[in-house]
Amino acid sequence: MSIKHALLALLSEGPKYGLQLREEFEARTGEVWPLNIGQVYTTLQRLERDGFVESDDDAEPGPQKGFRITDDGARELDGWLRTPPDLASPPRDELVIKILVAVRLPGVDVHAVIQEHRRYIVELMQQWTRLKDEEGEVDLSLALVVDAELYRLDSVVRWLDTADGRLKRAALEPPAEPRTAAPMIRRRAGARR
User: Rounded to an integer, what distance in angstroms lies between the CA atom of residue 82 and that of residue 184?
Assistant: First the structure.
C-alpha cells in the first residue's frame, strides 16, 4: 500500500498536520490498516524532500506542523491514481509457496494441508461478513474494504479447491517430465525481464 500517495490524496483536500493525516487515513480505510504516527512523519519528510509537499517553515517540528501539497505533489498523485499496478507477474504468496513445498515433502498429506487452510479462510470470511453486517451499512470505507477482502479470500478458497482437484487427478496419472515454465509464463503474461 502506498502511504505516500494516500497522504498526498488527503493533503489534496487542504493543509493538514501529521496527527490529523493519521486519523483521516485510518478513518478512510475503515480503520483496518492502523498507521504509526512515526511512519506519517517519516513519509512527510520524504515527500517534503522530494518537493511533493511543503510545510509551515516557521512552525516547530511536531504534531501541529502543517503540510500542504505542491503542484508537483498533485501531478504525482494524479499519475499514481491513473497508473494501473503491475499485475503481470503473480505476487509471492506464502500460501501458494506452502502448498508447492508440501506437494514434494515426503510424509505430508498435502490434501490435509489444503483443507486446514481452506477451513481457516472460510472462518475468516465468516468473520469479515459479520463485521460487514454489523458496521458496513454505516461505514462506506469499511464496507468497501470488507468487500475487497471477501473477494480476495473467495479467490483463495477457489484456488485451494482447484489445487486439491488438480493434485488428486495428478495422483491418478503417470508423472510427466518436469520442465521450466517460468520463461513461457513470462512471455504469455507479457512480463518484463
Answer: 29
Nearest Cα to 167, choosing from 175, 177, 156? Answer: 175
Rounded Cα distance between 30 and 106, Å, is 44
Cell output for 88: 503481470
Give the model's pLDDT for residue 187.
59
Phi/psi of residue 17, nearest 5 degrees: -105, 170
**What stretches of the chain adopt beta strand conformation (E)?**
16-17, 53-55, 66-69
Handedness of CA 69, 73, 78, 83 (dihedral sign): negative
**Per-residue pLDDT at 9 exceeds 90:** yes
In this predicted structure, the answer to whether residue 38 has a pLDDT above a threshold of 80 is: yes
Do 96 and 138 form a contact (C-beta atoms < 8 A)?
no
Which pLDDT does position 14 carry in this prediction?
Answer: 94
User: Regarding the domain delimited by 3-82, which CATH topology (the fold level of the hierarchy) does it fall under?
Assistant: Arc Repressor Mutant, subunit A (1.10.10)
* pLDDT tens track for 80-99: 999 998 887 888 889 999 99
